[in-house]
Amino acid sequence: xxxxxxxxxxxxTMLGVTSCNDDDGDYPRNTPLITTVCxxxxxxxxxxxxxxxxxxxxxxxxxxxxxxxGDQKQRAIIWFSLLDQTIxxxxxxxxxxxxxxxxxxxxxxxxxxxxxxxxxxxxTGYTVGTFNxxxxxxxxxxxxxxRYNSKHTFTLAVDKSGTMEFKESKEGYxxxxxxxxxxxxxxxxxxxFYISFDLTPLAAELEGKKGINLLIPTRENGNREIKLRFDxxxxx
Length: 236
Hints:
Elements: E1 30-39, E2 45-48, E3 54-59, E4 74-82, E5 92-110, H1 113-118, E6 125-126, E7 132-133, E8 137-145, E9 153-159, E10 173-181, E11 190-198, H2 203-206, E12 211-217, E13 223-229
Parallel strand pairs: 3-5, 5-9, 5-11, 10-12
Antiparallel strand pairs: 1-2, 1-4, 2-3, 4-5, 6-8, 7-8, 8-11, 9-10, 12-13
């Protein structure tokens, strides 16, 4: 399987994706990646990389039922093959094989403890090596117990109330916390899903920052803090 050099998935095996053999027949020849779905006029759509490059699926024959929601931002994993023909206005022309929308959350500045509590205190695990930070999005592979995944919501918050305790704050990094509301959906099996946060509401807070200091309240290891840089998403 050819690597595309984009935001590659760090947990492909968890999604049931394996490498392909050239003799297997019709299959996506490029490594799947996470993009932003961009609705176009007439119900059409394209996808955008985190660096701004756009991919247009001129061949949608394998996903005839997919329709994007034009009312909200949406992140999705796409499986595809690059096509040789160029499309004006797009960096890449692709044959689209599959689209899997992932949880797309928002971020906010929280000024009082009551609002912080409202956003939830459920525990969230994570998979090392799956974090990706861009100017607009934070994405990682989350682990948590669930029976009904639709009940779970996630928010990325800057705590101005002083409720959260950050032990590894560092100059140049914005302290943020992952808040998880499970709506009492407890006792289910351990599950893993990609989640992605829109950073647009934090633009003023992030101005001039090198990256973020991400606090994740985990179930087994307490509060974990991970530093991610904009130019190289990685745990420090």
